[in-house]
Amino acid sequence: MATAWHGIYPASTTQFHADQSLDIPATIAHVEKMIAVGMHGIIMLGSVGENTTLEYGEKLEVLKATVAQVRKRIPVLTGVAETTTRLACRFAEDVKKIGVDGLMVLPAMIYKADPRETMAHFRTVARATDLPILVYNNPPAYGVDITPRMFVELADEKSLIAIKESSDNVRRITDIKNLCGDRYILFSGVDDLVLESVMLGSVGWVSGLVNAFPRESVRLWELAMAGNYAEALKVYRWFTPLLHLDTHVKLVQYIKLAAAECGYGTETTRAPRLPIVGNEREEVMGIIKRAIETRPSL
Fold first, then answer.
1. Which of 76, 88, 70, 57 minimizes the C-alpha distance to 28?
2. Which of 9, 59, 136, 254 is flagged as catalytic?
3. Quick check: 195 and 236 in contact, CB under 8 A?
């Protein structure tokens, strides 16, 4: 599928049975529900998809099932979050054979690379495949920062097509635009900065809370892209307490809990992530229930 990435790409959940084994039917059923609501693409095995808790073979199993289900109706991307550059390159080769349409490449996990090492990682993965790549920059979560000037240096790698900007610093959108022009397709990667990011030049949104509130997410996106910021702001202000859940270290548990409350799968995560309990659960459930009770009319 030719690269024309734009719009909302759910960072889709991976579903598990109660014993934490993979639930492939439930995983692809959720993907189908996202397509039905109008998603523009799908990203499997991202942070919300619990990439690093899956074994190598399990990841390929998820992707085979997803590609077979989607049937080229929308682009299917996969997260690439391996511990070494070599393994990331191997994974890129293997998922191309499965038929994914692109990669969302993270820095190598565990080790906190310096800028030289970080750029070498992305260059090496880019040269190991001809699949288009969305570069995932999330220094708050992964401790590795790809700065706007580093993107200038990486601009000669033609397969680095897009950037998921999750630095939590919306200034980066303008800095990248000023330094790189239209070289990269820009995606917002922080749910509670999406409206600001669109106003500054993002044309895509990799979203976590869309897994729970897909219709409201589509409405917000459509209003923002139409430049109807007054109406978009009404939806955004209702949505923001939920969207804040995307920026917490327990975002996976929070998002899965919200999705389960809205009828999209279960909240089961794979250890070391455990269910939310006690006061924390009450607080998060309060946010979710208030949102459900006051959701805007669409």
1. 70
2. 136
3. yes
Q: Which CATH number fits domain 7-294: 3.40.50.11890, 3.40.50.1240, 3.20.20.70, 3.40.30.10?
A: 3.20.20.70
b (16+ CB within 10 A) / e for 157-169: bebbbbbbbbbee
Integer Cα distance of 200 and 284 in angstroms: 30
pLDDT digits (tens, 9 = 90+) for 183-219: 999 999 999 999 999 999 999 999 999 999 999 999 9
Q: Which residues contact 177 (CB under 8 A, 6 or more apart)?
A: 186, 200, 201
Helix axes 251-261, 278-294, angle to 10 degrees: 50
Question: Side chain identity at 107, as an amino acid letter?
Answer: P
Compute φ and ψ for 265, nearest 5 degrees.
80, -165
136 counts as catalytic: yes
Of the candidates 9, 59, 142, 164, the residue annotated as catalytic is 164
The pLDDT tens digits for 48-85 are 999 999 999 999 999 999 999 999 999 999 999 999 99
Place of tokens 């682009």: 75
Active site residue 177: no
- C-alpha 100 chain-centroid distance: 15
* Residue 77 main-chain phi, psi, to 5 deg: -110, 155
Whether the CB-CB separation of 116 and 146 falls below 8 Å is answered with no
> Which DSSP string do the residues of 87-122 spell out, in sequence order?
HHHHHHHHHHHHT-SEEEEPPPSSS---HHHHHHHH
Report the SS3 class of residue 137: strand
Domain coordinates in residue numbering, the chain: 7-294
Distance, CA of 124 to CA of 126 (rounded, Å): 5
